Amino acid sequence: MSEGGVRNVILPSRYVQGAGVLGQLGGFVKQYGERPYVVSGRTSFSKVRARIQASLLSAGVPLIGYDDTISECTHAKISEVVSKAEELDADVIIGCGGGKAVDTAKAVAEKLHVPAITVPTQCATNADGMADAVVFSDDHKFVEDLWLSRAPVLVLVDTDVVARAPPQYIVQGMGDALAAAFEKPAFASSQRAKKASPLATNAALEVNLKCFSTLMVHGIQAKRDVEAGKITDSVEAVVEAIKLQSGFGFGGGGCAGAHAIHNGLTVVPGLARKHGEIVAFGTIVQMVLEKRPLGEIERVMRWCKSLGLPIRLSDLGNLDRSQLVKAAEKACDPNDSMAFMPFQVTPKMVLNAMAEADHLGESLYES
Ligand SMILES: [Zn+2]
Questions:
Q1: Segments of the chain assigned to CATH 3.40.50.1970
Q2: In CATH terms, is domain 14-162 a member of 3.40.50.1010?
Q3: Mind listing the pLDDT tens digit for each residue in 274-294?
Q4: If you measure from the C-alpha of residue 259 to the centroid of ligand 1, how many angstroms do you get, rounded to a whole number?
Q5: Does residue 198 have a cis peptide bond before it, meaning omega lies within 30 degrees of 0?
Q6: Which CATH class, in words, describes the domain spanning 168-366?
Q7: Residues 100-109: pLDDT tens digits?
Q8: pTM of the predicted model as reported, rounded to 2 decimal places
Q9: Which of the residues 67, 103, 176, 315 is marked catalytic?
Q10: How far away, in angstroms, is 178 Cα from ligand 1 center?
Q11: Does 218 qualify as catalytic in the annotation?
Q12: Active site residue 259
C-alpha cells in the first residue's frame, strides 16, 4: 500500500559557495541572460557593487540597471521594480542583500518570466534559495507568502561577504535553521497521517538531520570565527547548513510549531528579537509540546544559550506578559503552520509549553 500524497521539494538549480566566488558571477549570469538587473538594499549593494559590476563587465554582460532602494518587500515595490526592469528589457534578475531584497527580486523575476539569481550579503535568512516571497505592508505587517513557480537558478554565496557581515546575522540564521530539523519531521508525519500533499521527501528529512548535526558540531565555533574575522571550515559548514540545507526543510512546505509560535509572539508588545532568534525559542517550545526527553531539550537550549539565542521569555525583550494568551491563540490560528503539527495543539498547551521552556531556561542560567 502506498501512503498516498505527492512528494515535493523545490530547490535552486545551482548552489555555489566559497570565499571570492562573487568574481565568478558574470560567467554564471551569461548562461542565463545578457541583460542583468540588480534588485538590492542600499547598504548591501554598496558593499558588493564594485565586485558585481566588474565581474559582469569582464564576462561581457554589463549591468543594465539596478534598484537599490529595497527596504521592504511590498506589492507596490514589486510592481515598481517590474516596470523599471521591463523598460530596460532585463532578462535576468539578480537579488542582492538580505531576505527583503532577494524576496523582491524573486517576485520580480517571476512576474517578468525571467530567471532569478540570488547573491546574499548576510546569513540571517535562507530566503535566497526558496521559491517564495514574503510580502509585507509598508509598516511591516505580514500580507502574504507569495508562492513562486521555481526557486532561483543560482544561489551564489560568497563567504568572504556573508562572514564579514555583523556576527549576529549568522546567529539569527542558525536559529532559523535549527527549526528545520524539528518542523520538517513534524510536518512530514502530520501530512502522512492526513494522507495530504505535499509529503516530505526522504531526501529533505535526511538533509535536515545533517543540517542539525552541523549546527550542533560547528555552530558555536563558527560564531567565534566570524567574530574573529576568520573564514574557517566551521564557518563554511554553517553557512551551507543555513543557506542550502535548511532550505530542504522548508522548500515545498515544512513549517510547523516553531514558526507558528514565532508568528504568535510577534503580537506581543515589547518583543525585541529578530526572526531567527524568535524561531529558536519557538523551536524549544515545540520540543516541549512534543514531550521530547529533557536531555535533548536541554542540549539544544545550552547550544542556544552559548550563541546568545533566547531560551527564556525575558531574553525575548521586555514582553507584556498579559498578552501571551493572545500570542498562544495566534500561534494556534487554523491558517498558521501549527496545523502541521502531528497532534492537536491548543492555545493552553502553547501557553504551558512557553512557561515550561522559560522555567527550563531560567534553571540553565542558575546552574
Ligand atoms: Zn524562518
A1: 14-162
A2: no
A3: 999 999 999 999 999 999 999
A4: 6
A5: yes
A6: mainly alpha
A7: 999 999 999 9
A8: 0.95
A9: 176
A10: 10
A11: no
A12: yes
